[in-house]
User: Which sequence fits this backbone?
């Protein structure tokens, strides 16, 4: 069974045509991989489907805009993986 | 269909929130300046307007689902297939089904048929945002009433 990071890295590679081996847990989806907000919707859709969750993109964006969070917390892939694991755990709770 | 105003939907035929589906109808006008250019001597409904008709029907579905709390805007068109020509005067049946209700976006499968024959289909991504201003929301509410979209008030008011 692949890890959460592997699943989202594969989704990003396939959705955005980015070489899989250039995607690491420390990659920032926006700053390092150059994924824009529209492409990220495709990624979010694929993640939502793969994990049976709803990524709270609007809440995250609001928190970043309000200075309550940094983009690193949500868009560095190891952090995104952790957020997804939390959402999956909350769904099963 | 008020084609020059980009108001492409004549009426909502059915809205099923439980199944997350909507159907609408629109009659392509018999005459329009658009047909003078598209194409001279062979008038055809432009394919981009067929996609717009699917987007508008999809948008009404999203508006109904969120009870006029937010406004959908077309963001992406995928797997669009324009399968046959549409001529002036044709009655179009447009259907849309919400595939995914995401955070700030929606994915919708839409299609148009005429006399039972599939004309086009596409997967659409809509960004779902706050209404930019109260005037737009009011205009959209009036347009919804005109085409027969019945939207329940939110449960909390």
Assistant:
């Amino acid at each position: 069974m692949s890890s959460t990071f592997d699943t989202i890295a594969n989704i990003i590679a396939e959705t955005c045509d980015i070489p899989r081996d250039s995607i690491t847990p420390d990659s920032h989806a926006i700053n390092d991989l150059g994924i824009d907000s529209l492409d990220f919707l495709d990624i979010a859709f694929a993640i939502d489907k793969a994990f049976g969750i709803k990524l709270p993109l609007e809440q995250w964006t609001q928190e970043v805009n309000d200075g309550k969070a940094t983009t690193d917390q949500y868009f560095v892939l190891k952090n995104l993986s952790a957020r997804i694991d939390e959402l999956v755990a909350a769904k099963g709770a | 269909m008020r084609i020059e105003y980009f108001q492409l939907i004549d009426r909502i035929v059915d809205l099923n929130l439980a199944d997350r589906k909507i159907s609408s109808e629109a009659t392509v006008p018999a005459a329009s300046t658009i047909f003078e250019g598209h194409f001279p001597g062979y008038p055809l409904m432009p394919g981009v307007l067929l996609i717009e008709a699917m987007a508008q029907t999809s948008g009404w579905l999203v508006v109904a689902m969120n009870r006029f709390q937010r406004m959908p805007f077309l963001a992406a068109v995928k797997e669009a297939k324009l399968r046959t020509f549409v001529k002036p005067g044709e009655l179009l049946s447009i259907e849309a089904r919400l595939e995914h209700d995401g955070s700030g976006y929606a994915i919708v499968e839409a299609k148009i048929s005429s006399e039972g024959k599939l004309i086009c289909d596409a997967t659409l991504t809509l960004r779902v945002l706050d209404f930019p201003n109260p005037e737009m929301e009011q205009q959209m509410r009036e347009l919804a009433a005109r085409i027969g979209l019945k939207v329940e008030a939110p449960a909390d008011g």
User: Anything to note?
Assistant: Chain A touches chain B through 14 residues (CB under 8 Å).
